[in-house]
Specification:
Chain A: InterPro entries: Radial_spoke. The complex is a heterodimer of chains A (540) and B (275). Chain A has 540 residues and is an alpha+beta fold. Chain A contains 13 helices and 12 strands. In chain A, the strands form 3 sheets. In chain A, strands 4-3-2-1-12-11-10-9 form an 8-stranded mixed sheet, with helices on both faces. In chain A, strands 5-8 form a two-stranded antiparallel sheet. A two-stranded antiparallel ribbon of chain A has the order 6-7. In chain A, helix 2 packs across helix 3. Chain A is flat and about 140 Å long. Chain A starts with 30 loop residues before the first helix and ends in an 8-residue tail after the last helix. Chain B has a domain of 114 residues. Chain B contains 9 helices and 14 strands. In chain B, the strands form 4 sheets. Chain B has an 8-stranded mixed sheet with strand order 4-3-2-1-14-13-12-11, sandwiched between helices. A two-stranded antiparallel ribbon of chain B has the order 5-6. A two-stranded antiparallel ribbon of chain B has the order 7-10. In chain B, strand 8 and strand 9 form a beta hairpin. Chain B starts with 5 loop residues before the first helix and ends with a helix. The chains are: A alpha+beta (540), B alpha+beta (275).
């Protein structure tokens, strides 16, 4: 740095250390040295930066010009920002002749999708005809429900609620639907799910049963082929056959009953096409109870877990929806009653109907006592179904193992869950946390307040009641609350090996001495045999 | 989130399903400016609410001129009467981390420490106090833990002046959409932990005025944030999976951003199993 000339008066070479020249004098005898110093300084300031192409001299000139033009207050405090602004201004000039591709942000595509929701369907005449033929499918008043839930602080953005309203209307127009309800929203990692609970009309459900019949026939054929192969192979020596018999598969409940009472449609965003979720099997529910996984938002994503979940994310979602519905769908006590007045413990107690003589209790009472609310969805048993079935009844195919299965049948006792319209005050809490929390939406205006129930077992499940109106909804991640940490299931114990027998038991190898002794004994016997024949044997 | 932008912000965060009822919103609009006047805060943020079994706590934070200084926290049960919480000490933080279970909703509820941490209980007994921890203490410690773990701001929203104080950046115009989708554009608004561990090459690219905080990229466990673009990119919403209920929103290319917590105040310790 000291290579270039003196810039400042105190540096040697400037000329001021000479006896006549002092830095405090205004006039410098020899102006040349000072001019040289000034030129050197300016040359240094004009040096162009290798990184940005700017130089300090021009930069300072621009800063001072800007400051003098704009005259901001407290300039010295914001001088660094001003310097940055000037630098940024320099960079704006693009000397490229290439133009940037006009990026279409995804915002516009989404806006188009939402706009499409607002299209009014069909002509007026067609609508009237349809309404006369079929019973009018009931579109739920999503906005009204959203209003009541909003009194408790629960719910989505009004815009989003309206989009969902329109999307449900589209769903009803497309699918043959009898009743429809907005079930709730489940959050996922990449995308969320909006879920509609639907009851299809009578004829549609039979189609699905026919499809399943075909699948079962296919499996039966495969089993026959396997048996033929086995018979051929029996001639060769085979390793011992495994005596493992997987536990009999518990059949899923028929559509329209139990866990499959409703059909669920999901979509990621209102405006996307609705996808129907497959019916749920008891095996899926049993497995879903043991795992805890976030939803990604894609229905075909695999669920990687232990125990391995039989299905992909669509099945896991359906299983969680079934569990949440069974655990948290409640209504004011007395709103629903049984169709026939027989004992509630019959297995046919799946149907209920509205009670026309229902008198809604006042909101204060609904908040005070949990006995004013009742479940209207049957709870799921440990087996994974709402109605217990004895798996050993299906032993027609395997004649050999009847004895074993009868023993197992005796061990499995019939499971009985709580009857259908149980009061929620009978729900057990966890440790010291009650299963439900009830509160009124407002204390200040009791006349118009709404009774709100929050579930503590399934955080995110809410219910409200106001007079004759009530509704359930779910907003959350789709998992049950457990006060303990989730412990994954341990792998099963190692399966028993084959029973010991002479064929597969290891014996100790004979030692060298034993072998030599055996060999010697053999040769002696041989030698004796040869001597008897009057021949002389030779030892090896 | 700021009090003035509360209605718009709540609308953007509502996709998680939880929000505030109109009564509470109106009460907040009336009471938070009074809090700002009484305590002479420069900024008051509505932090969110923690749902207890029997009641809900609504939390507000007050900030002074240096936004990185320890914040004052206030709680209320009805959004009208606010009480200041005493700042959390290290022991309170350590105890609160070990406590499990929901909040009760009663600020004077006593948690018996002998079940949770026998040593701390013994120490308290020796010093003559009862081995209990009040729910207020657990509340303030939980708020502090949540802020430290998942309180986030976009990159460039805050600047550090040469004197060390942290201010809002008046030149912040919002993140562009491409940047808003990346986890590295968001910072934790607490003391940085990972900054010193960066390589020299990375540090050379940092701008000391805006890059003085930890970014979300290296959060453990990986994948503990869920980024979603809503309305086709009109809003970026980040949800924390470690503290379920914390939602951060930002409208790209505008100055709107903020985070709020609506939840039960429990850490999601099952996160590694759930990913």
């Amino acid at each position: 740095e000291r290579g270039h000339g003196p810039y400042q008066p105190h540096e040697p070479g400037y000329g001021l250390d000479q006896p006549e020249y002092s830095p405090y004098e205004d006039e410098i005898p020899d102006p040349q040295a000072r001019m040289l110093a000034i030129k050197n300084a300016k040359a240094y300031l004009l040096k162009t930066s290798t990184k940005s192409g700017l130089n300090l001299y021009d930069h300072f000139a621009n800063i001072l010009t800007k400051i003098l033009d704009e005259q901001p207050t407290n300039t010295v405090d914001i001088i660094e920002d001003i310097s940055k602004d000037v630098k940024w201004a320099q960079f704006r000039k693009k000397m490229d002749t290439l133009r940037d591709e006009h990026l279409i942000p995804p915002t516009f595509q989404a806006a188009e999708k939402y706009k499409a929701l607002f299209v009014k369907e069909g002509g007026g005449e067609e609508e009237e005809d349809l309404e006369e033929e079929m019973g009018q499918p009931s579109l739920p008043n999503v906005m009204e429900t959203a209003f009541y839930f909003e009194q408790a602080g629960i719910g989505l953005n009004k815009d989003e609620s309206y989009y969902i309203f329109l999307a449900l209307k589209n769903l009803i127009n497309v699918q043959p639907i009898q009743t429809c309800r907005f079930w709730g929203k489940i959050l996922g990692l990449e995308m969320n799910y909006i879920i509609a609970e639907v009851q299809l009309q009578e004829g549609e459900e039979d189609e699905e049963i026919a499809e399943e019949g075909e699948e079962i026939v296919g499996e039966g054929e495969k089993e026959d082929e396997a048996e033929e192969d086995d018979e051929q192979k029996e001639k060769e020596a085979e390793p011992p056959k495994s005596t493992y018999k997987p536990p009999p598969e518990i059949p899923k409940e028929a559509n329209g009953t139990g866990t499959n009472k409703y059909v669920y449609f999901v979509c990621n965003e209102p405006g996307n096409p609705w996808v129907k979720l497959p019916p749920v099997t008891p095996a899926q529910i049993v497995c879903a109870r043991k795992i805890k996984k976030f939803f990604t938002g894609r229905l075909d994503a695999p669920v990687v877990s232990f125990p391995p979940f039989p299905g992909n994310e669509a099945n896991y979602l359906r299983a969680q929806i079934a569990r949440i519905s069974a655990g948290t769908h409640v209504s004011p006590t007395g709103f629903y009653q049984f169709a026939n007045e027989d004992e509630e413990e019959d297995e046919g107690a799946d149907t209920y109907e509205e009670n026309p003589e229902f008198e809604p209790p006042p909101v204060a009472e609904m908040v005070e006592s949990l006995a004013t609310w009742a479940h209207h969805v049957k709870g799921i048993l440990k087996q994974g179904r709402c109605v217990w079935i004895n798996p050993s009844q299906k032993s027609e195919e395997n004649d050999e193992d009847e004895e074993e299965e009868e023993e197992e049948g005796e061990e499995q006792q019939e499971e009985r869950g709580p009857p259908l319209l149980t009061l929620i005050s009978e729900d057990e809490g966890m440790k010291d946390i009650p299963a439900w929390t009830a509160k009124a939406s407002t204390d200040l205006i009791p006349k118009y307040s709404v009774a709100i129930l929050q579930s503590n077992r399934w955080p995110g499940a809410y219910a409200f009641a106001s007079g004759r109106k009530f509704e359930n909804i779910y907003f959350g991640w789709g998992h049950k609350y457990s006060p303990e940490n989730h412990t994954p299931e341990l792998p099963p114990p190692a399966q028993a090996e084959f029973p010991s027998g002479p064929g597969i038991t290891e014996t100790v190898d004979p030692t060298v001495e034993d072998e030599m002794a055996f060999k010697a004994a053999q040769e002696e016997a041989l030698a004796e045999a040869e001597e008897e024949e009057d021949e002389e044997g030779e030892d090896d | 989130m700021e009090v003035q932008s509360l209605p718009a912000a709540l609308a953007l965060v509502a996709s998680g399903g939880t929000g505030l009822s109109p009564e509470r919103r109106a009460a907040l609009g009336a009471s938070l400016p009074l809090v700002q006047r009484d305590y002479r805060f420069e900024r008051v943020w509505f932090w969110g609410c923690i749902q207890g079994v029997r009641g809900t706590y609504y939390i507000a934070e007050g900030l002074g001129p240096d936004r990185a200084a320890p914040r004052s926290r206030l709680y209320s049960l009805n959004c009208l009467d606010w009480s200041l919480l005493t700042p959390a000490t290290k022991e309170m933080l350590a105890l609160a981390e070990q406590m499990k279970g929901r909040f009760q909703g009663d600020p004077s509820f006593d948690y018996s420490l002998s079940e949770i941490n026998a040593e701390a209980a013994a120490r308290l007994v020796e010093s003559g106090k009862e081995p209990v921890m009040k729910e207020e203490g657990r509340l303030v410690a939980t708020i502090e833990l949540i802020d430290r773990a998942v309180g986030i701001v976009p990159r460039g929203a805050f600047v550090k002046t040469p004197l060390g104080a942290v201010h809002e950046n008046r030149h912040f115009e919002g993140l562009p959409l491409a940047e808003a989708k990346k986890l590295s554009s968001y910072f934790h608004l607490t003391e940085p932990v990972n900054l010193k561990n960066k390589t020299l090459l990375e540090k050379a690219d940092l701008d000391p005025s805006t890059d003085f905080l930890d970014s979300l990229e290296h959060d453990i466990p990986r994948g503990s944030w869920s980024i979603q673009l809503e309305k086709g990119g009109a809003v970026v919403v980040l949800r924390s999976l470690l503290w379920l209920g914390l939602t951060f929103y930002h409208v790209p290319m505008t100055k709107q951003f903020g985070y709020v917590y609506f939840g039960t105040g429990e850490k999601n310790l099952d996160l590694p199993f759930m990913l």
